[in-house]
UniProtKB/TrEMBL annotation:
UniProtKB keywords: DNA-binding, Phosphoprotein, Transcription, Transcription regulation, Two-component regulatory system
Residue numbers carrying 4-aspartylphosphate: 51
Any one of the GO CC terms: protein-DNA complex
One MF annotation (Gene Ontology) recorded for this entry: phosphorelay response regulator activity
Signal peptide interval: none
Protein name: DNA-binding response regulator
Domain of life where this protein originates: Bacteria
DNA-binding region (UniProt annotation): 124-218
InterPro entries, A to Z: CheY-like_superfamily, OmpR/PhoB-type_DNA-bd, Sig_transdc_resp-reg_C-effctor, Sig_transdc_resp-reg_receiver, WalR-like, WH-like_DNA-bd_sf
A Pfam short name: Response_reg
Source lineage: Bacteria, Pseudomonadati, Pseudomonadota, Alphaproteobacteria, Hyphomicrobiales
Residue ranges annotated for the Response regulatory domain, each copy included: 2-116
């Protein structure tokens, strides 16, 4: 999953981005409203953390423009404002949830997990596909109840496919949603990680649809 953090405070921006990366997300960062709007308008993010009080262009205006332009990614707004009217304004602009400052990072992570689940039609924090179980809270994967050790990139790829299981996902979509904007998109990294996951989870869990991409499906009889 690829996320965007738009926050003008450098320290807070870094803290949020680090926490998200540690949780297994690819993260891009912006420090003002204009930069944030441009990234959200041109890159396919799975969710956005958006501060309301931004320089150059405030967060409410950024969000309103995204929604007018048809951008539907979930948006979690951050605000230091306590007035209920500001929260209402954020929701009316198209926000999906909010966290007031100061906040605990675990709450931000939990709210983002919930937004990502709802956006892909999942109600539980545990995603299941046959014998494979992925716990989004703990970042753990098991196969038939036995823990499977994955690298961060393998976990990121599996998590995206688990959120979108049953649907064919192209290599281009995977690259766009699993790596930040500085990633070398000409590499064959996706194929390498798919191969590694097949060795760890079974060759029939991730299927190749020739010319289209990959699909995660429960094996027959699972």
């Amino acid at each position: 999953m690829r996320l965007l953090v738009v926050e003008d405070d450098p320290d807070l921006n870094r803290q949020i981005a680090t926490a998200l990366e540690d949780a297994g997300y690819a993260v891009d960062r912006a420090f003002d409203g204009e930069e944030g709007h441009h990234l959200g308008d041109t890159e396919p993010y799975d969710a956005v953390v958006l501060d309301i009080g931004l320089p150059k262009k405030d967060g409410i205006s950024v969000l309103e423009q995204w929604r007018r332009d048809g951008r539907v990614m979930p948006v979690l707004i951050l605000t230091a404002r306590d007035r209920w009217s500001d929260k209402v304004q954020g929701f009316d602009a198209g926000a999906d949830d909010y966290v007031p400052k100061p906040f605990h990072m675990e709450e931000v992570l939990a709210r983002l997990r919930a937004l990502l689940r709802r956006a892909t039609g999942h109600a539980s924090s545990e995603l299941l596909c046959g014998p494979v179980r992925l716990d989004t809270r703990a970042g753990r994967v098991t196969l038939d109840g036995h823990p499977i050790k994955l690298t961060s990139h393998e976990y990121r790829l599996l998590a995206y496919l688990m959120h979108h299981q049953g649907r064919v996902v192209s290599r281009t979509e995977l690259v766009e949603h699993l790596y930040d904007q500085d990633f070398d998109r000409d590499s064959n990294t996706i194929e390498v990680f798919v191969g590694r996951l097949r060795k760890k989870l079974g060759s029939d869990v991730i299927q190749t649809v020739r010319g289209l991409g990959y699909v995660l499906m429960a094996p027959d009889g699972a």
